[in-house]
Amino acid sequence: MSALGRGLASLIPQREPATTAPVEIPLARIRRNPYQPRQRVEQEALEQLAASIAEHGVIQPVLVTETFDGYQLVAGERRVRAAQMAGLERIPAVIRQLADHAQLELALVENIQRTDLDPMEEAHAFRQLIDEFGFTQEQLATRFGRARSTVANTLRLLETDPRVQAAVSDGTITEGHARALASMPTTHQAQLLDIVTSRELSVRQTEELVRRLRDGGQERPKQRPAQEADPDLERVEEDLRRSLGTKVSLTRSRRGGRIVIEYYSDEELGRLYERLIGGTA
After folding, report:
1. pTM of full prediction above 0.70
2. Which of 6, 38, 42, 214 is spaced 20 to 30 A from 103 at the CA atom?
3. Active-site amino acid positions
4. Helix or strand or coil: residue 24?
5. Looking at domain 160-216, does it have CATH number 3.40.640.10?
6. Contacts for 195-199: CB closer than 8 Å, 24+ residues apart
7. Hey, how many other C-beta atoms are within 10 angstroms of the C-beta on 62?
């Protein structure tokens, strides 16, 4: 029994050693992360965080890498901005030495796990990882717990009309709306966007509108595939992937079903373990 206990403990990473304990560093010496995927921060949310920090302090340290003249922020931009608004001069931070691609990846992972990025910010971050650091779509899917088709669809948002992209960013339409519009020529997307927003069409209604336009107004026979994917199951699967930050697969059977949660390192297993049992990572 004791051997089994030691085996499990070796799989579940323990707390970081003292050498990575947070230290207080001056806010004035922290430079913004040039690889930060978040492009906008809601002012109201920032003010609420600043009020909380003013009362309770910064609870979770930020992550920085040391430079020759100070520190460069890797993750925690909202906390840094809110701490500055709250009038703090110093902030708790964990210092690591990271390459550029690691800075972008960590910033992206943190924001995706917190569901802090809008779809366009995710799309730009994925594109940056591909263009600047040589990631493939398959590698992105594996690293961030997404289906490869999900990564491909997110990247397709960058090919839409700028007005469509802006509408996704500000929440006027969803990523599903944008994917439907993306199947139309770019020159027609802005006009279709106006129709979608003025009529408050759902994603399904938008898809039907696009289908009718592409078919020249002709109805197609409505055929249901023999084994069509369950949209409710796919939605639950995607929510779990976003929440856990890794690949999750759901399958149904006559007597219930099965959930498979994948991990790719002992460190990631430790993070999943703490999140699932309600601990603090």
Report:
1. no
2. 42
3. 77
4. strand
5. no
6. 197/167, 197/172, 197/173
7. 24
Task: Please state the domain extents for the chain.
Answer: 20-113, 118-155, 160-216, 233-277
- Residue 173: name the closest of 211, 202, 151 by CA: 202
Q: Exposed/middle/buried for 74, CB within 10 Å: 0-12, 13-18, 19+?
A: buried
Q: Among candidates 275, 243, 246, which has minimal Cα distance to 12?
A: 275
Of 102, 97, 112, 56, whose CA–CA distance to 79 is shortest? 56
For the chain, how many residues are written?
281
CATH of domain 20-113: 3.90.1530.10
Question: For residue range 24-82, what is the model confidence (pLDDT) as tens digits?
Answer: 889 888 888 776 666 666 677 778 888 888 888 888 888 888 878 888 887 778 888 88
**Sequence-ordered alpha helix ranges (H) in the chain:** 2-11, 43-56, 77-85, 100-113, 119-133, 137-144, 148-156, 162-169, 175-182, 186-199, 203-214, 231-244, 266-277
User: What does residue 90 show for φ and ψ, rounded to 5 degrees?
Assistant: -135, 160
